[in-house]
Amino acid sequence: MSRTLFRNVNILDCTGAPPYAGSVLIDGNRIKAVAPQGSSIATDGAAVVDGMGATLMPGLIESHSHLTFLDTPDLESLGFVPPEEHILRSVKNARKILDQGFTACNSAAAAKARLDIVLRNAIDAGDFPGPRTRAASPELAPTAGLGDVRLRHMHRETFAIICDGADEFRKTAREMVREGVDTLKINPSGDEFVPHARAHQTVMTEAEIAAVCEVAHMHDKRVAAHCRSAQSVKLALKHGVKVIYHATLVDDEACAQLEAAKDWCFVAPTLGINYTTLNEAGKWGLTTEIAESMGVRRELETGIRNMKELKRRGVRILPGGDYGFAWNPIGTNARDIEHFVNLLGFSPMEAILSATKLGGEIMMLENELGQVKPGFLADLILVDGNPLANVAILQDANKLLAIMKDGVFHKAPTAKQEAQRQSA
Amino acid sequence: MQRILYTNIAILDGTGTPPYPGSVLVEGERIARVSGDIVDPAGAQIVDGEGGTLMPGLVEAHAHLTFLDMARSIDLGFVPPEEHMLRTATNARRLLDAGFTSCASAASSKPRLDVALRNAIDSGDVIGPRTLAASPEMTVTAGLGDVRLSHLYRQNFAEVLDGESEFRRFAREMVREGVDTLKINISGDAGTVASPSRATVMTEAEVEAVCDVAHAHGKRVAAHCRNDASIRMALRHGVTILFHANLIDDARALRSRPRRQGSSSRRRWAIPTRRSTRLRPGASPRPWAGSAVSTGSSSAASTT
Ligand SMILES: [Zn+2]
């Protein structure tokens, strides 16, 4: 079994403790020992990496990933990509996000029924490089819901499977369980950019939500729900949905219910997509004026206010900004960490913990992933600089001197880099 | 432009001349100079061959990059398109690693796999040989590749079609998807009980329909032809690649001019696949005058 020793590193262990100088020993795919400077560590036979003071921290974890989205400017373009090309492009995305230091991804929906599953299995088998992945279904949505891009006279599709009635939702959920998903994704609310299903509208019936949740519970799967409206959050919680995406328009009652469920549910607001839609989509014809007329600014500002309230109540809030669209492309996912600092008032430490420690929890590996601790999985990044001083450096792949997943270097530190840093 | 100079090599240039010492300069994607002397290396990256042989990358004339080394052809059918695409990408890399820089496909095991692979290789997304993409094997009910059970659907590498209009429509669909080669199974094969090698199972009209489509769109037809009648039928309609051709009565048949013109390549190729070829006395797979024989081994397939 291979052993690697990181010595002379500044350990940001993401337990919440401040960083400290020391060494970390990796044995196989796990962290064997973490030793602060001055204490001894058995290093026999280990390959030694001299960090020269760089920050060693857990790999980043994306809580709302869409590795099968293709940076398209609209939804229906996804539907035009055949499955063969689609899986190859998903493989490319997986590598891209791992290159950016994301060693784990909790999928928030696949763009076709089997893509996430096949991608996860291929990565786990070692056939293609990528982060560890929790595979999701496409978004199960009703006619006229978010993701229904059909024309009356012609079929089109995107990332959704359209279901109507509890029976259809149940059957689709079961099919996805058979194919091997970890997460069933449903769209109980609409979204501001969908004219026929707005963010404040709750478009799935309680019976439909209940049907999917029942299947999930029977098979030990998890449900994740697109819930912008307050009512959709309440219905989702009532039926045990563990991952609530957005939650932007929650009211007092929904906030109280989320607080009561904080030990078992997660909230990910997806600030990235709202931020870039409002500020950076002009090149695609979506100017700030148009975005404002769609209600995106109000949605973002209300969401920010509500996230601050949920944070105050101790709800677990995670970054992950719906990266995978033209103006919010895959690979820029670490911007959400900066959004947490700039928009939500998180301290840099809090924002980083939400992308590491809480990430391990949303990956259902609470005691194994997202912290630098003995026994944890060796998913690590070596960062040139101090992310606590500036979380934005996590967006720069050039600052990632090394990326290790499951005890194996995806990106090994090079002698050239070491020489450059020594002379700098 | 990137320049690479190979020096200190024996050049096996693939023209037919014996190897000779010299150097070869590559500029960008092309060979710029082949010389018996050392050429001026200005700015080029130098590769010292240390007396090794420099020769063209190998070319597989009967490739099945979408086949998955399975013992039974029906197992191909159980692989969903997503996994199939990824395993195909892995095969492409394996074959390139083995020195094959080009592949003429002799059939794709699902309709779009070869096409998607070729495009992904050409765009640099997947590492593999340059590829000419083929359709699945267009075959008839009871022909080579029809693995359906009467009560239950199964599939492998074939599209089962009956009648010239079905063949024509499917050929057109494959042209729309972007194949370079349309593959047809005119004869049977030893592994197919209902259609042995001596059986010619496609009708003249079916073969003609596919060839019509190919000629209209500037595509090429490749045919599984073991027996003499199937070879002659293929030749009558301008099929330019004959796979197997092992039961031919008189190799002079391959010398005749094709009756139809307008095919993208008028030279005909006979490719005796090694593994599944049983030679009859007098039917030698040696180069025939006027035709070219190429090699291909039907690797990863029990029959093709
Ligand atoms: Zn999303």
Q: Please, could you describe this protein's structure?
A:
The complex is a heterodimer of chains A (424) and B (304). Chain A is an alpha/beta fold. In chain A, 32% of the residues lie in helices and 22% in strands. In chain A, the strands form 3 sheets. In chain A, strands 1, 2, 3, 4, 5, 16, 17 and 18 form an 8-stranded mixed sheet that branches. Chain A has a 7-stranded parallel sheet with strand order 10-9-11-12-13-14-15. Chain A has a 3-stranded parallel sheet with strand order 6-7-8. The model of chain A has no long low-confidence stretch (mean pLDDT 96). Chain B is an alpha/beta fold. Chain B is globular and about 70 Å long. At the A-B interface, helix 1 and helix 2 of A face helix 1 and helix 2 of B. Bound molecules: zinc ion (ZN). The site of zinc ion (ZN) has 5 residues of chain A, from loops.
Overview in brief:
Helix content of chain A is 32%, strand content 22%.
How are the SSEs placed, and which strands pair?
The complex is a heterodimer of chains A (424) and B (304).
Chain A: E1 3-11, E2 20-27, E3 30-36, E4 47-50, E5 55-58, E6 60-65, H1 83-99, E7 102-107, H2 115-124, E8 132-134, E9 136-141, E10 160-162, H3 166-179, E11 183-186, H4 206-218, E12 222-229, H5 230-238, E13 243-249, H6 252-260, E14 266-268, H7 271-279, H8 288-293, H9 296-312, E15 316-317, H10 335-342, H11 348-354, H12 357-362, E16 380-383, E17 400-405, E18 408-411, H13 415-423
Parallel strand pairs in A: 1-4, 1-5, 6-7, 7-8, 9-10, 9-11, 11-12, 12-13, 13-14, 14-15
Antiparallel strand pairs in A: 1-2, 2-3, 5-16, 16-17, 17-18
Helix pairs in contact in A: 1-2, 3-4, 5-6, 7-9, 10-11
Chain B: E1 3-11, E2 20-27, E3 30-35, E4 45-48, E5 53-54, E6 58-63, H1 81-97, E7 100-105, H2 113-122, E8 130-132, E9 134-139, E10 158-160, H3 164-177, E11 181-185, H4 204-217, E12 220-227, H5 228-236, E13 241-247, E14 269-271, E15 292-293
Parallel strand pairs in B: 1-4, 1-5, 6-7, 7-8, 9-10, 9-11, 11-12, 12-13, 13-14, 14-15
Antiparallel strand pairs in B: 1-2, 2-3
